[in-house]
């Protein structure tokens, strides 16, 4: 960890806790800052705030009082989920207080080079694939960032022998100024989080921040399946390394059933340990970064062949009586479910879908669910999902929750079938998070297996 003096005796406000806020507060205190933490959750229900107070850090909980910003703060470190139109953030900007996210802090102190991964879908899988490939190839890849390990915490113990493999959301990237990864990948760009960003153009601009400080000595890996990526490739100082499943490019590409890097065959697409065309794209991005990092082909092939997926992202749970179960609870939008379905024979799939009603119809899903054996539908959005099922001529049944849906699906399935939880919806109508939803599916599978 670099011993920087940037924050010594400077008043810093950490807005919002969760894992990243807690890590940022502790790091700033260690760097000599005068730290105040402000979180909306009441103190009595806030173990993180209680812990920080015990360590001597000032905490203000239960609300976001605007008058707090009259205390001459020189910096605000914002939780990524807090929007820029939040009154506290807006007032800070009015007062010319810089607003950053904790990944900027991580960069400032890190002795380790950074590989940054962002995109609309596939971030977590690709981040995990890259870290595992580096580790299997004799290097040290440390998972960090939006994947559940606060970057500013991981960076404190990383050395120049490590590499921070950092998943980055658009929210985090908006709060960067000097952040500078050596290699960056954008898996894909789709219209999502528009409620936060306002327009797709602003969302893309936030993602594109990942490369804004890159030079000709750095690399940006882009998905040339998308024309947008080809346009962006013209607007960076970094060396562009493309990947594609549809054309031969000067990077990683699919030709027939073989994955190549610059005309060098690496492995068969059919050998990738997780199904789906989207995972071929994720594997190509991983291959590009692995080759740029000097990883041997054998280590790349071995890692990707044995890759078992990420929890809640098309996670293979196993099988009971010849019926396979896949947990794809992290599919909280239509595109993610489309990608999940691409890896299976629809005639063998019993799809569990539905969740939070965001007011959108599911017509885009109709071609992808056509031919599905059965849908088990649940949640607030059930009427809308059923309309799509009707248009696709797919039979469906209702379920009251995920556990009920898993049991119904198992009861209707035959040997050779797949029970796939891929909701195409957020979880918040019934569950605190997609993780809780997925954990219920896993627990039900384990119960069925033990009966």
From TrEMBL:
Alphabetical list of Pfam families matching this protein: Mur_ligase_C (PF02875), Mur_ligase_M (PF08245), MurD-like_N (PF21799)
Pathway: Cell wall biogenesis; peptidoglycan biosynthesis
GO CC terms in record: cytoplasm
Domain annotation Mur ligase central: ranges: 117-290
UniProt KW Plastid keyword: no
EC number: 6.3.2.9
SUPFAM superfamilies linked: MurCD N-terminal domain, MurD-like peptide ligases, catalytic domain, MurD-like peptide ligases, peptide-binding domain
Domain of life assignment: Bacteria
Keywords: ATP-binding, Cell cycle, Cell division, Cell shape, Cell wall biogenesis/degradation, Cytoplasm, Ligase, Nucleotide-binding, Peptidoglycan synthesis
GO terms for MF: ATP binding; UDP-N-acetylmuramoylalanine-D-glutamate ligase activity
Catalyzed reactions: UDP-N-acetyl-alpha-D-muramoyl-L-alanine + D-glutamate + ATP = UDP-N-acetyl-alpha-D-muramoyl-L-alanyl-D-glutamate + ADP + phosphate + H(+)
Entry binding sites for ATP: 119-125
Name listed for the protein in its UniProt record: UDP-N-acetylmuramoylalanine--D-glutamate ligase
Organism, as annotated: Streptococcus vicugnae
Protein's gene: murD
